[in-house]
Amino acid sequence: MLGLEIMSAPIMRTTVALATAFVLGGIIGLERQFRQRSAGLRTNVLVAVAAAAFVDLGFRVGASEGSVRVISYVVSGIGFLGAGVIMKDGTEVRGLNTAATLWASAAVGAFAGAGQAAEAALVAVFVLAGNTLLRPLVDFVNRRPINPSETEARYQVHAVCRPEHVNAVKDLLYEELEAHRYPIQEIVTLTESANYVELAATIVPTTADPKELDLIVTHLEARPEVTSATWTVETHA
């Protein structure tokens, strides 16, 4: 009987670890499922349980040194899984929060697999807080009108010219922007045809003065080589 109890002790430890990961991963996943995210209840449960199983296995076969090694593998492996839920839609990237939640579920499972149920529960609480309590704050910030003067943004000065004037207009862009102390990151050709070429000079990430950019555009349009000029800003970059 004593031998049976000793034999069952590791099984009980594994059962507790997996059950803890299952419950906590389920709580995290349930919140994601309610919000109709791509990685919902089942995905977060499986990630947490798998992380717990791997860490528990590492502990069983290699003691603490083995579990530490397995945890590092779990962290890198979840990174590949998270990359699968990240999608780029034009200039917008989707799925970053879902990928981060999967990573956090793996952390919950790793704590559970290491036999630290209280710490696993604490991580789960903070993950839920991040996905729920911070949402109103994020919505408030996103609803604020964007002021380019307060935001590090990607500014570009555009100039349209005839093909034979491309080199001259590039020199003009350098001269005008450097005169106003705006270093240029690059000048690229946005569109090109037999009659016109549109160039765009990207300013090194900084906070620019719209009035100064308007003045630069005015100077460019006054030159005979330039057909038209304007400037743009992308504050989400």
Task: List the SSEs and their pairings.
Layout: H1 2-34, H2 41-83, E1 87-89, E2 92-94, H3 96-113, H4 117-132, H5 135-143, E3 154-161, H6 166-179, E4 184-192, E5 197-203, H7 210-221, E6 226-234
Antiparallel strand pairs: 1-2, 3-5, 3-6, 4-5
Helix pairs in contact: 1-2, 1-3, 1-4, 2-3, 3-4
Features:
237 residues, alpha+beta, Alpha-Beta Plaits, 2 domains, 4-stranded antiparallel sheet, two-stranded antiparallel sheet, 7 helices, 6 strands, 16% strand
Secondary-structure element sequence? HHEEHHHEHEEHE
Strand content: 15-25%
C-alpha termini separation: 66 Å
Helix content: 55-70%
Instruction: Identify low-pLDDT runs.
Output: none
SS summary, helix count:
7
Rg over CA atoms: 28 Å
* Helix/strand/pairing category: alpha+beta
How is this structure best summarized?
With 237 residues, the chain is α+β, with helices and mostly antiparallel strands. The chain has seven helices and six strands; from the N terminus they run H-H-E-E-H-H-H-E-H-E-E-H-E. The chain has helices at residues 2-34, 41-83, 96-113, 117-132, 135-143, 166-179, 210-221; strands at 87-89, 92-94, 154-161, 184-192, 197-203, 226-234.
